[in-house]
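User: Hey, my collaborator sent me this sequence without any context and asked if I could get a structure. I don't really work with proteins. Can you help?
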Amino acid sequence: MPDTELHEGSLRSPSVETLSTVESEYRGAMNSLESESHSLWYYSWKRLRRNRLAMAGLIVISALALVAILADVIAPFNPNQQILEYSVKPSFFRGNVLYRKSENGTDEKVSIPITDFRVEGNTVFYHDFTGAQKKIPLSELAGANENEWHAQPVFLLGTDRYGRDVLSRLIYGARVSMSVGLIAESISLLIGICFGAFGGYFRGLIDEFVMWITNVTWAFPSILLVIAISVALGQGFWQAFVAIGVSNWVDTARIVRGQFFSLRESDFVEATRAMGFGVNRTIFRHILPNAIGPITVTSTAGFAGAIIAEAGLSFLGLGVQPPTSSWGQMIRDGYGYIAAGNNWGLTVYPCIAIMLAVFAVNLFGDGLRDAMDPKLG
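Assistant: No problem. I've predicted the 3D structure and written it out in structure-token form, which is a compact way to encode the shape of the chain:
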């Protein structure tokens, strides 16, 4: 009998307190799991932060973007301001100028290079670079006191052949390069994603048509295609961006097409078809987000390529037109001085700027590729 009673007791239903305890523990475990679960981007960012080279590249890119945005504040001079008397001066050259009011009534100051000056009454007497003595009334000078109408500016990186500040032009050139990387690559991504997505999803005749256009575009050297499109559209700021973007979509299209080939047969895609979702929703809301990793990595390489392409176009005179500051245009204006054996900085400084920008983007792209690969931990 005791054994029977023990056996019967073990089969009794658990008490209410026991059930509530188990339920609370279960909910606590589930809440803990939910709090610890994060998206792919969270874990990719954690892996990216451990890559020092990639973070260094990201810091350089962020610094260049900040310089481009704040160029009006950071640049010490107007990048297009010409002082011909200060043509091709070395680094850390100190000038001596008077600022005269503009004749057209604007707030822009006109620089008068001088060697010395003196004030007598309401007139300023000065010697110009030819040694001739001249005078100008105080009322024509831009400012209420000497600190406003007289200055001794320092050109940290020297001046070019037109007497323009090299540092200011480098800073404004960063705006052009970062803009072309962003806008041209956005155009390239838009074309490449659309072509690759529709070709990889529909296959058949649509895929053959997409691949025919892709192969024809790929058959042309990219720089020659950029030049041809730039000549057809005309020379200018936006024309260069469009020419580069329209020419560099092939790699993106092929990668997106390959991703769609492997993803279109997945169970979740079959589920969207079974639920009656439309083609556009299946492509852009379900398949494309799962292919965003390779696309993101490819876009960083395209960003660097766009910077180089813009510099090449500007060097050939087919990109951004003077007097707009561009790193490629600066190299074109200064490369002749290397052969002459002097003022090498006119070419080396913009070359260093291009190298830093492209190297930083490539470092960040390599780190991003590793970070978005979950197999690498």
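In plain terms: The longest helix spans residues 166-202. You can pass these tokens on to your collaborator as they are.
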